[in-house]
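Supplementary Text 2. Reproducibility record for the structural model of the 375-residue chain.

All settings were left at their defaults, and a single model was retained for analysis rather than an ensemble. We include the record here because the model underlies the residue-level annotations in Supplementary Table 4.
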Amino acid sequence: MFDIKIITDYQEFRALKDEWNRLLEDNFSRGIWLRHEWYDCWWQAFGEGAELFVVVMYENSRLTAAIPLMIMPMRIKGIRQRVLRFIENAITPRSNFVFPGISVEKLKVLWDEIFKHSSQWDLAILANFEQGNSGYECWRKHLKECKIKYVELPERISPYIRLSEGWEAVKAAFGKGLKGNLNTMRNRLNREGEFALGTFSDAFDLPMALSTCEEISRRSWKGKLGKDMSGTVGRAKFYKLITAVAMSNGWAYIWFLKLNDRFIAFEYELAADGHVLLLTLDYDLEFRKFSPGTVLRSLLLEQLIERGMTTYDFAGTVYDYKLYWTKKLRLHSQFWVFHNGLKSRMLYLIKARLLPAIARLKSKPPVREQPDLGG
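Retained model, structure tokens:
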């Protein structure tokens, strides 16, 4: 017998921590970004204006599934909507269910309960839904078998490096341009003085290291655009909170490239179970001619392999500079899910029918008018 509950109270959500993390031990998808601590930090930093809508399933009084959702007001095509979403934003690498033993039958029970509360939301947009696992396949099967109105769109493509292949294999996968650039930049740095890789993972050093990261980030190109680590209140708060959690769990690794007496670049990573997640990185714009971020990554990858790490996850979306390092990619989808309410049905017609039809018309080559040749 299933007992389904929707949690809207923050303190009640916090009380789930131990049970939630126990579920992850056998989940089809695992990562720090699916742990309760990550969602808690995210909610404290970015949750203003949203409402918790965490769906949990109990079997024999034991937590067996959790879907980390929230309701957030958004404007779509200029129309204000109440959107059911994963608890996530651009800082989140990817999303999925925390649901060991996932099945179409159990998904139906959960989403039947969610649809009972459809008066509270206009549509669901499940962003950065990770592909390539049983959760994704089961979810798509559920949508089709239950004849739920939905649209699936391609979303992030995230590169990663398989460190378990060893340093020679990883290095061999670098693009030719990257290999040449690394040699050039290392030679330039050598002429400038002494450069070295350093790391901080000790709880005593991490607060100071985080402060140094923030200073470098302010001096980066992101700082000029207000997109640096402390460029917004929410972002600064998230990094402070997740660092405190990571310190207590031994997840945090901050790597620096130091030239003479100056820290000129950093990478901040979270690492657990051999998986290294790139959380953020920056370099001092004053030293851009040395490509300090590139040199730093080449040095730390070798170190990560020596430490027995198995995967380096760029996260985020694909950019050309990431493809210089690897051609291995993780695919993600975005699902727009609609219910039978009037507004939701109208949104479905616009998203699934009207907009694709307009796109097809725009993609057709213009019909050339035939000249009138007379006679």
